[in-house]
Design goal:
This is Protein of uncharacterized function (DUF2810). The protein is mainly alpha-helical. It has helices spanning about 5-25, 30-65, 75-80, 80-90, 100-105; strands spanning about 70-75, 95, 110-115. Helix 1 (about 5-25) runs antiparallel to helix 2 (about 30-65). The two termini are about 35 Å apart.
């Protein structure tokens, strides 16, 4: 299972526990309230761990891409015909600023990275 799916499942669990906690609080069931508070704390800790893994993975991918020797912003014409551009440049990696890795790299425009000049 990938990190995104795992994070979604953990968030679903937290939501379910919070709903059950609210119901237990309305009933005044102290034992169940304490149990759900412990479970919410445990799942919240797991969520923080998975988010940390995601951040480390994005940082690693970003540094690997930034290590490529050549990079430049792509023109609108190049963006429009991406297939032709990728066929002409071996090993081209295109990063859009609105993707997770683009936000992590703090890009402002669509940028291409390649091992050779293009």
């Amino acid at each position: 299972m990938n990190l995104k799916q795992e994070l979604q499942q953990l968030n679903d669990k937290v939501d379910k526990f919070r709903r059950k906690l609210a119901a237990a609080e309305q009933r005044g069931d102290d034992v169940v309230i304490a149990q759900f508070k412990r479970e919410i704390a445990a799942v919240t800790k797991q969520i923080a761990s998975v988010k940390g893994q995601q951040t480390r993975l994005l940082n690693k991918q970003g540094s690997d891409i930034k290590d490529l020797p050549f990079h430049r912003a792509l023109t609108k014409a190049e963006q429009a015909d991406m297939g032709k551009l990728k066929k002409s440049v071996k090993g081209l990696v295109v990063i859009h600023p609105m993707t997770a890795i683009g936000r992590e790299m703090r890009l402002t425009e669509v940028t291409g990275y390649a091992p050779e000049k293009f």
